[in-house]
Amino acid sequence: MNTLLGVDTTGSYKPVRCYIGLGANIGNSRDTIAEALKRLNELPNLTVNTVAPLYRTAPIGYTEQNYFINTVAEVSTTLTPRQLLTALQQIENDLGRVRVMRWGPRTVDLDILLYGEQTILEPELQVPHPRMTQRAFVMVPLADLNPGLDIDGQKAQLLAQRLVEEQEIYAEQ
Ligand code: A4P
Ligand code: MG
After folding, report:
1. Ligand 1 contact via 57 beta carbon (within 6 Å)
2. What are 90-121's pLDDT values in tens digits?
3. Is position 106 annotated as part of the catalytic site?
4. Which residues 6+ apart lie within 8 Å of 128 measured at CB?
5. Residue 31 annotated as catalytic
6. 67 burial type by CB count under 10 A (0-12 exposed, 13-18 middle, 19+ buried)
7. Catalytic pick among 109, 144, 152, 162
8. Which ligand is nearest to the CA of 99?
9. 169 burial via Cβ count (<10 Å: 0-12, 13-18, 19+)
10. Quick one: which ligand is closest to 101's CA?
């Protein structure tokens, strides 16, 4: 297809492949993540392609809180990065998220990990997510979906293998 800035010759936008990180540690986290994925897939102009298995993970950053349930979803979307961020924040709010402290407990957190191959450095949005390559709870499910994915010249699977040596992460039954 001939494309110019993501617009094909018929004038419609070409979907971009993105990865969304999901995390929860208040209430029934498994149900909340399932509901967040359902709402994500119901968004106009977005399709959830695949979802990695769920993992139970030790809290990183602020450690005096419950373990998290984490996973990653691959989606295709014609939403712009800004529109996608707004849609994710709306789902977070609708599912009862209250922001008390950074890195603190949350009903659900939805982060844009990657938006195609774009780099975005705005005050409200940084993509690739700046801390993703340091976190097993992101890299392990991401590597499940796409082990050969290249992130700054390194393969997702190799990054994940290194992180599981030092961070607690368990397959959730
Ligand atoms: N923002 C900037 N870039 C992005 C992006 N790529 N995707 C801005 C989503 N949001 C992005 O986020 C704060 C602001 O980040 C937003 O207003 C948005 O404009 P937030 O969700 O309100 O707060 P947060 O999640 O506490 O902050 P942050 O910096 O996103 O935290 P992290 O780094 O994502 O860490 N441990 C385990 N085991 N599992 C977890 O899921 N999550 C965190 C959050 C810490 N420890 C964890 C987990
Ligand atoms: Mg967040």
Report:
1. yes
2. 999 999 876 666 766 778 999 999 999 999 99
3. yes
4. 113, 114, 119, 151, 152
5. no
6. middle
7. 109
8. 1
9. buried
10. 1
